[in-house]
What we know:
Blueprint: E1 7-13, E2 15-16, E3 19-20, H1 23-38, E4 42-48, H2 52-60, E5 65-70, H3 79-93, E6 95-101, H4 104-116, E7 121-125, E8 127-131, E9 136-143, E10 148-152, E11 160-164, E12 181-184, H5 205-208, E13 216-220, H6 230-240, E14 243-246, H7 248-252, E15 273-277, H8 283-286, E16 294-299, H9 306-309, E17 312-315, H10 318-321
Parallel strand pairs: 1-4, 1-6, 4-5, 5-12, 6-11, 7-11, 13-14, 13-15, 15-16, 16-17
Antiparallel strand pairs: 2-3, 8-9, 9-10
Helix pairs in contact: 3-4
This protein binds flavin-adenine dinucleotide.
Residues 145, 221-223, 247-249, 261, 263-266, 278-280, 282, 284-285, 288, 298-301, 304, 317-319 line the site of flavin-adenine dinucleotide.
Amino acid sequence: MSFEEYKNLWVFVETEENEVKPVGYELLNPGRELADKMGAKLVAVVIGGKVEDIAKKAIEYGADEAILVEGDEYFNYTTDAYSIAMKTLVDKHKPSAILIGATNNGRDLGPKMACDLNTGLTADCTGLDYDVEAGNMVWTRPAFGGNLMAMILCPDNRPQLGTVRPGVFKKPELVEGREGTITREDIHVAADQIRTKLIKRIEEVAEAVNLEEAEIIVSGGRGVGSAENFKILQDLADVIGGTVSCSRAVVDNGWLPKELQVGQTGKTVRPNVYFAIGISGAIQHTAGMEESDIIVAINKDETAPIFDVADYGIVGDLNKIVPK
Ligand code: FAD
């Protein structure tokens, strides 16, 4: 297979009900660097109901160009409408690689596209690079329970697809008024080609509290001791304008819902301040929070590994320290 005609790096900028999912803009940050390394254009692909303003903003966030597909059938995500639109776009424009946010919808779209396009997908990447000599994307993601980082290549097929979790990269600097071409593609998917219907939207805790966007996070672990005792963490969060989250041990104990879990199999967060309270600091937990600007750890065990990633550490009983 000759890859010569496959050019440019695409970032899928997801929208839902005409609102952007921030991960799309975040991906323009590594996207810019990768596209420059590839000697390619960075193209934002924006699909939605009425989303031209989002395409314009993608250019202000650093995309050279945007491809815009609008239609009522894209107002809410469906696997069929979005994957048909993406396949049509890919067949026409032939991008070399596509970055997709690992949101619920992105995790659905990525694999469907990989099947439709007969190519490979690396899911949940935490690092992205481009091997100039070989002409391949180098996708990095945790493997074997987070104990090693695997570098994954897709040398035999194009486009190369990867999903990246929200919060792994920071949004790039917005340059107001930055200009670029917006190409409108008139793609419509007939109702009978869409096999699912959105009947009702139920807002989950995950959507109600957006951990990835929180500036202060008060996170508790098994050391908090019980569901009831999370009240002292909530009180602290209320006083400082924070959001409560937790480790997996807390979810496994049924003290808080899975949507609030931080870590390798939970959310990746990078708040200004992250309080790790009664959390030991297992690698699978720190993988989801170590990029926080300031980490404050409270733990009664001074040898707990969480102190290795913490900027400030308090050794002592959380039941005495947190209320203070
Ligand atoms: P523990 O390790 O039990 O630590 C509790 C801590 O609380 C201890 O350090 C203790 O000293 C301290 N403590 C106890 N009482 C007090 C007190 N009164 N005052 C102060 N400190 C106190 N974990 C995640 O968090 N997120 C993930 O996404 C995740 N994904 C995983 C994926 C895989 C494939 C695997 C194998 C594991 C994963 N884990 C994940 C689990 C992870 O390995 C740890 O088991 C988990 O993070 C431990 O949670 P913890 O720190 O709350 O509990």
